Amino acid sequence: MALFGLLGxxxxxPFYMFSTVLTLRLxxxxxxxxxxxxxxxxxxxxxxxFVWAPLLDRFDVPGFGRVWGKRRGWIMLAQLGxxxxxxxxxxxxxxxxxxxxxxxxxxxxxxxxTLEVAAxxxxxxxxxxxxxxxxxxxxxxxxxxxxxxAAGSGALLVADGPGWSAAYxxxxxxxxxxxxxxxxxxxxxxxxxxxxxxxxxxxxSIGILVAAAAITAAVGWVVLAVAAGAGLSxxxxxxxxxxxxxxxxxxxxxxxxxxxxxAGPTDPLRTSTAMGPYVDFFWRYGFGALVVxxxxxxxxxxxxxxxxxxxxxxxxxGYSLSAIGRADSLVALVASxxxxxxxxxxxxxxxxxxxxxxxxxxxxxxxxxxxxLAHQTVSEPMLYLATAADQFGNGMAGxxxxxxxxxxVNLRYPGAQYAFLSGFAFLLPRLLAGAGGSMVExxxxxxxxxxxxxxxxxxxxxLPVIAxxxxxxxxxxx
Length: 478
What we know:
The protein is an all-alpha fold. The chain is built from 23 helices and no strands. Helix 2 packs parallel to helix 16 (301-317), helix 6 (70-91) runs antiparallel to helix 7 and helix 7 crosses helix 11 (194-229). The longest helix has 36 residues, at 194-229. The radius of gyration is 22 Å and the shape is globular. The relative contact order is 0.15.
């Protein structure tokens, strides 16, 4: 539990830096609300982690993997990527070029997600049952949410003083702290020459980091050129296009299911390194997979919609960065820890359907709290109440949801399948979050946060069907 608390802390620190903190930084530099909404699409990257997750199951990081094993090797590489990306964001904190800001934000999101993929695979391998997962998932989320609170509140308090560059440098240093701790841990039983492995790993990591940055810059240039050619701008209402895009994955999966269900154990679809882990999920659940994926797409949608625009709304009400930072410190930390702890205990001792339903209600209540806050006079105690309700609901729903997703996974492919499920769960919410600025311009902040709360409750009608959805037994040899 201590180990996964540390890993959760490592992944949670950078998350706020390319999401909530970045939105406030952009707002401070006069970036339009619609464009700030577009930056929410940086958070789409974790939804596509299934693309590179099989690589983490199959390959080792040179040097690191030989000495510390596959999972720790990838975690150490990811921490180097997180550190260098945040240093780069500190160096470009004036946001003179939004394209450059987006580049380093995407790289930060990529390496943060890579760390999560490796840690999640390790967690599922070590604790394969629901009873075992409850405490470990809670410990992981305690670390994760503690780090998010530390990054959010700490970065804002520093930004209100020395500035945004200092804020990113402070969090970069904190995010890198677990690296020497991992390097000092006991190596694999067959490992020798720890120093040589560390040196080889660092040299290989530099090459990988440079290659990742070059590829990201090239892809980003193409995407921006295509968007400009299509006439997309801050004045474009992107919501209809986003909603249409969200339907495509479900249509494609429904068309492919009959072929997948007929596939035998030696079929190339199921034995492929790249596709096999994902085909296996649909083979086991059949058309029930579509219901499961629809449910997971809705379950955390309210929280994701609220994440990016809650802080700009609070800032617009008249609260200072320091006030927001204080609310996001001890208040958010205590509320989040309580929510995660109760969620982890609940899922270990009650039926999954009940736990999911109760947590969804608390998550919705937290979103409605922002509507209530908007109609109060500016007062830090009121801000603390709204923040506590939001963090408690998010923590509880997050703990239950992590265990639910973990129980869907085939232990033959823990890293790839969990990456797919957890990534797909946030695909639709993060697509819509990118259109959040456009939504606010049309329905206002009240309508937006009422909508986010109602969407959290929309997951509840799925629960009777979800409870009856069971996978068929695999016909592949153990």
